[in-house]
Amino acid sequence: MAEDLVLDTAIRDWVLIPLSVVMVLIGILRYFVSKLMRSYQSPDAKVVKEGQVVIRARSLRAAANFIPLKSFRARRAYFSNEENGLLYVPKGQVPNAQAQMFSDPNMAMDMMKKNLSMIIPQTLTFAWVNFFFSGFVAAKIPFPLTQRFRSMLQNGIDLSTVDVSYVSSRSWYFLNLFGLRGLFSLILGEENATDDTQRMMQMSGFGFDPTKSLSAEKDSLDIVQHEWALPKFEQRAEEVLRRLVS
Amino acid sequence: MVGHEDSGASKKKSTDSSNDLPTFNAENLQNNTKIIYYSRTFLSIIGGVIAGILGYTGLTGFVFYFLIMAITSLGLAAKAKFSIHSYFDCWNRLLLDGFLGGLLSYVLFWTFAYDIVHIF
């Protein structure tokens, strides 16, 4: 089963390395292009205000144990009071916010631009690979796969006796596509737009709904149990000082 | 590229020493998590190249990958002087975070090095 094919050195020089280099360069290019094309959206005052209220409520929840019980209760009532609490939004306003968000032309344009800037280079590179680099064995993957993968990995090679480990350049393209994500995150810093699968997952869960987040904050604020931590801090201070002195 | 020597030096303490209620400095925690991610990615690439040069095939290669990840965890734990709770919020984050994320990069560079050295 393992007849070792000897492959031409020219394949290595003219297929593997150029393909990888081209993909790295396209990734870098895409990163810079997306940086240049990022349009600045002037933030909506209402959205910013709601965001800040949510942040305040969140820090109250996080630091609840450092303030006395009465002041915590006062703050919580300020947020979740039924009549004029900041987090309480009447039901009638819910559909308004959603409709506005999705028909907002700026946001739709932005999303489309980001999607396009990701899809177009991939499509072009794939077409280029298929046109130039098809019909021969490109690489050997070091681990064995079952016969079912043969059609996926060896699409240009029409011999059925060749080991499944010998793959065509299309599969080399896909391997590069997924494997270079890690490399991009190292050389481009955290903010790079090449992580397409994660971003697609983010896009599907998009629906930014301010009212939903407000009511979620209100609920989580309501269930916080207050346990005042400060009485124990005297003991902590004592321990620390003891350790310093001794 | 975040250098391997530098990455450990910028870990910051995210909790106070003896706490009944642990409090975390979110920014430092995030920074430390990022360092873990960078270390794992970098080592998975290097490990891939090493595995390819050494000619590992099949299962041996995957075992080598897990070995590299274990060494990464050990190295990070040693850098944190084994007092995990002052740098991270739980053990799992240090040991298991990003474990499989480097697998694809590892396979890519493993294939690359293996082909260049052994087939061509």
From TrEMBL, chain A:
It comes from Nelumbo nucifera. Belongs to the EMC3 family. This is ER membrane protein complex subunit 3. It is found in: Membrane. It is a multi-pass membrane protein. SMART domains: DUF106. Keywords: Membrane, Transmembrane, Transmembrane helix. The chain crosses the membrane at residues 14-33, 119-143. GO terms for cellular component: EMC complex.
TrEMBL record, chain B:
The keyword Nuclease does not apply. Residues 16-25 have a biased composition (Polar residues). Residues 1-25 are annotated as: Disordered. InterPro entries: Emc6 (IPR008504), EMC6-like (IPR029008). It is a multi-pass membrane protein. The chain crosses the membrane at residues 35-56, 62-82, 94-114. Pfam families: EMC6 (PF07019). Its main location: endoplasmic reticulum. It comes from the Eukaryota. Residues 1-15 have a biased composition (Basic and acidic residues). One of its GO terms (cellular component) is EMC complex. Signal peptide: none annotated. The keyword Transmembrane helix applies. It is found in: Endoplasmic reticulum membrane. Keywords: Endoplasmic reticulum, Membrane, Transmembrane, Transmembrane helix. Belongs to the EMC6 family. This is ER membrane protein complex subunit 6. The lineage of its organism: Eukaryota, Viridiplantae, Streptophyta, Embryophyta, Tracheophyta. The gene is LOC104600637.
